[in-house]
Amino acid sequence: MSDLFLVLLILALLVCLIGTVGVLLVYSGILAEVVVKTGPPPIRNVTIAYKFKEGPYKDCGAAYTECCSIGPKLKSIGVYYDDPKQRPPEKCRYIVGSVLCEGEEKPDEELQKMYEKYGFKLFSLPEVSHAVTTSFPSTTPLSYVLGPYRVYPSLTSYIEERKLSAFPYMEICSSGVINYMVPLSRQTDFFVPEMKEELKTDVKEEDSDEDRGTDITGADSHSDVSSVSGGVPWDSRETSLAASTAASLASSLPLRDVLDANEDIKHKDHSDRGSNESMGSGSSFEELDMDQEEQEEGEQREEKEDEKEDGEEEEEEEEEKVPEGEDGAGEAAELVAEKKESSGDGEE
C-alpha cells in the first residue's frame, strides 16, 4: 500500500512539473503568433553605446547582461551582421548595446561616461522609412531563448518569398516586447567602424588569394577570370547578392560586396561620363564633316544650275537674233551686202 502511494505521489509530481513547464513555455510565448510585415521601424535615428563582438551568437547573453547592469531602464539592442550558415559561428560578428537616446534628443552625459568607462563606444544608427518588422513577447528570461527560434524562420521565409534586399538583422529589447527589424535601405549605414574595417580586411585577403591563384595558373586563367568578372555589371551583382543576404541571416559575403559596390559604382559613373563625352565629341566631329560635305555639294549644285540658266539665256538671245520668214531672209541679205561694202571701202 505504501509503495502504491509513493508511485502515485511521484506521478502526481511529474504531472505537476510537466504542467508547470508547459504553462511557463506558453507564458514565455512559445505559442505566440509571429506576424511579419513591412512598414515603419520600431526605432528611428538612435544613438547607442555598443561593444563589437565576434563569436557564436548564443554567447551574446553576457554582453546583454552587462548592458542591462549599467542602464537597467534603457532599451537593449543587438545587430547581427553575419549568417552562421555561411560563416563559421566563431567568426560571426555582431554588436550589443543600449539605446541612449532617440531622435533629436542628446544622451545623458553621466550615463555616457559610465558606458565609456566600461569600454563601450557611441554610434548613431540611421533612420529608415521601411523595414521588415515583427515582435515577440518578453515576459520571462525564457522569451529571449524562444524568440529567435520562432521569429527568424518566419522573417527569412517572408524575405525570400518577396525577394527583398534586407539586412542586417536587429533586435530591440524593451519591457514586455522584443522588436525585430531588418532595414530595407541604407543597410551599410548600420555597420559600425569595426565592422567596416573587418570587411575591408576580408576583401584584401580575397584579392590576395585571387592574385596568387592567377600567378599559379597563368595567363589563361587570368583571361578567363577577367572575362567573367567583366561581364557582370556591379548593379546586377549588387542586387543578386543583397537578395541572397535577405534569404538568410545577414550573410557576410553580400555585405562585403554591397560595401565595396558604392566605390565601384562611383568609378563606373566617372568612366561612363568619360566614354559618353568621348562618344559625343566623336559624333560632333562626324556631324561637322557631314555638314561640310553637304555645303560643298550644295555649292556644286548651285554652280551647275547657274551654268544651265546662262546657257538657256544665250540660246534665247541667238533665237531672237535669227530672223524668221521672207522678211528675215531679206534682212539677212542686206546685212551681208553692208558687210561687203564696208570691207570694199576698207580695201580702197
From TrEMBL:
GO terms for biological process: protein-DNA covalent cross-linking repair; reticulophagy. Residues 198-233, 265-348 are annotated as: Disordered. Signal peptide: none annotated. Residues 218-233 have a biased composition (Low complexity). Residues 265-275, 336-348 have a biased composition (Basic and acidic residues). One of its GO terms (cellular component) is nucleus. Residues 286-329 have a biased composition (Acidic residues). InterPro entries: Reg_factor_effector_dom_sf. This is Testis expressed 264, ER-phagy receptor a. It comes from Salarias fasciatus. The gene is tex264a.
